Amino acid sequence: MKSQFSRKLAFIAEKETAFKLLLISLLLLQSAFTFADGVKAVWYRYYDSKGVANISTSVTPNHIRYGYEALDRNMQVIKRNRPYNAETEEKKAPQRAAQAKQREADLRLKRAYTNSQVATQKRNDALAYLKKQISFQQDQLKQLQSDRIVFKRQEMEYLRKGDPVPAILKSNLNNNAANISNKKEQIQTLQTNYHNTQAEYANIIARLKAMEN
Questions:
Q1: Other Cβ atoms closer than 10 A to 61
Q2: pLDDT tens digits for 79-137?
Q3: How distant is the alpha carbon of residue 61 from its chain centre?
């Protein structure tokens, strides 16, 4: 029981510490406003749970908790800040994490390709190389298939004469069949790589164009 109670106390203390750190961060970010038109905040006003206005020259945890208005030296509102809501912020955490992940991915794309034109050229180069490899393997497959026709004719000639098929010819036929099978697999792998490369670069180029617009 003591162990569970201690863990609960530690958990509560950890949550309170995290909340305090968050408040401190918000205070540091929001305590000295300088707006686009050059007007600086001089006063910070919030209304507590009883509706009482509280004004100070700096942002306090209560300002963050209740939400506050930044005022200029003439007490004119120049910015309103919503109350901090831990539950709302927690719900937004996954979305913010996804956005941060997307920004990181976008930065990697920019470093790797600079822009969509560069990515398009790299795609064309990669596809041209794969296409050349596919063509080369297909030529080899055709040669193997032509060799097989010759081997089969030789085999049929021996069978027609009633002579035994030489061991070397049988070996050639077996090796030829294995080579044809392997060559077809290589071509299939290259074709799969070709289509995957197309799809991958399509996503990359589309994302880069979206960032450029």
A1: 14
A2: 998 888 777 777 888 888 888 899 999 999 999 999 999 999 999 999 999 999 999 99
A3: 37
C-alpha to C-alpha distance for 85 and 107, rounded to whole angstroms: 31
Q: pLDDT (tens digit, 9 = 90+) per residue, 182-208?
A: 999 999 999 999 999 999 999 999 999
Task: Work out the angle between the directed axes of helices 116-161 and 86-113 (0-180°, nearest 10).
Answer: 70
Q: How far apart are CA 119 and CA 206, in angstroms?
A: 10
Residue 15 to residues 5, 22, 96, 128, Cα–Cα distance (Å)? 15, 11, 20, 57
User: pTM for the complete prediction?
Assistant: 0.56
Residues whose CB falls within 8 Å of the CB of residue 60, separated by 6 or more in sequence, listed in order: 27, 44
Measured CA to CA, the distance from residue 190 to residue 198 in angstroms comes to: 12
Under 8 Å between Cβ of 74 and 65 = no
Cα 33 to its chain centre, rounded Å, is 34
Q: pLDDT at position 39, please?
A: 72
Say if CB 180 and CB 144 are below 8 A apart.
Answer: yes
- Residue 78, SS3? strand
Neighbour count for residue 64 (Cβ, 10 Å): 20
Largest CA distance in the chain: 115
Q: Helix count (H) and strand count (E) of the chain?
A: 5, 4
